[in-house]
Amino acid sequence: xxPPNYSDICKPVNDLFSKDYPFGALKLEVKTTTANxxxxxxxxxxxxxxxxxxxxxxxxxxxxxxxxxxxxSWNTANLVTxxxxxxxxxxxxxxxxxxxxxxxxSTKRALRSKINYQQDNLFARVNLDALSPSVTADVTVSRxxxxxxxxx
Length: 152
Fold this sequence. Notes:
By secondary structure, the chain is mainly beta.
């Protein structure tokens, strides 16, 4: 069995309070998929105290012939993001991802790449932020139901 990545070890517990029972916000998510495989997701949340509304439109298309997945999104903060993923193309369990974002109302930009490698009892990940040069890495191993992980 492939273990979760290091930051997702407690994900089921965290999702219980943030997704399943959100406190202080009203949330809505609508998903649909077209006949040609393009999926659309619309997310919205309203803060109960301030009344502020945050929403996002996301599209995703999987090119199964070439093993690529394209994702684009646009949110109410005028942040536009794009992402290209390729999984299991170069090696089994290897996933490469390149993503970029741009805030239309400012000069804030981001360019990131991720490398994930997963096999039985191992999950390793390296993240590179190209515009603010930083590298993070983590690894999780499992053995007989026990998990151990480290993050750099």
